[in-house]
Amino acid sequence: MLNLKMGKLIFIFLILFTANCIAQKNKSSSKVSDQLYNEAKTEAQGGNRVKATALLNKIIKNDPQYFMAWFGLADIYHDTGEKQTEREALLKGLNISADRFPQGYKYLADLLYGEANYSEALKHMERYNQLKNPLTASENRLLESCRFALKAVESPVGFHPENAGSAINSKEDEYWPCLNGEGNTLVFTRLIKHDKDGGKIAWPQEDFYVSQKDSSGWQDALPLGPPINTHENEGAQCISADGRLLFFTGCGRPGGLGSCDLYLSVRQKGIWSEPVNLGAPVNSGAWESQPSVSADGRWLFFTSNRNGGKGKMDIWRAERLGVSPEGYPVYGKVANLESVNTTGNDLSPFIHADGKTLYFSSDFWPGMGGKDLFFIKLDSIKQLPPQNLGYPVNTSADEEGLVVEVTGEKGWFTSNSAGPGGRDIYSFQIPAGDRPDPVSWVKGKVISRKTGERIFADIILNDLVTNSLVQHLYPFENDGEFLFCLPSGRNYGLNISKEGYLFHSENFNLIASSSRQQPMNLEIELDPIEKGKATILKNIFFKTDSFQLKPESKVQLMEIVDFMKKNPGLVIEIGGHTDLQGSENYNLPLSGNRAEAVVQYLIANGISPSRLRSKGYGFSVPVGDNSTDAGRALNRRTEFKILQF
Question: Cα separation of 277 and 286, whole Å?
Answer without folding.
Answer: 14
